[in-house]
Amino acid sequence: MLRGAGALAGLAAAGTLAGCARPEGPDPLEEPLAAARDDAVTAAAAAAAYPELAGRLTPLSRARRAHADALAAEIRRARPDRTATVDAAAGAIPAPARPAASAAATVTALRRSLGTARDGAGTLALTVEPSRCGLLTSVAASCAGYVTVLG
User: Could you say which DSSP state residue 27 is in?
Assistant: First the structure.
């Protein structure tokens, strides 16, 4: 009887350990993180290049930077093995080239990027754990709002 109970406990422990295996490769949040960082830099550069847009693009840049910070924090929490990669990517963000040739073209490009980010975060939210779903839907909603504001 004790031998059977010991074997059952051993199987349960093995199953628990198997469930703790860390995924390999990039974290799924790394893609929306990169998009948020790119949008933040692009919006800040466009606000500087086109002062008439600064009132709309400076808050956008701040919001996308906050998205990037939250996504990076979640990746660090859930995937400590990806911390070095996430932090290295933050330091490697190049200064963007001059924004599009006109203020209107710049807004159009940002709206397109935000729409892509909205759709990507919304789609990814359906595939992740509930705690991450909330973060991604918040990012998607914010991007949707900015698409409207920039319209």
Answer: -
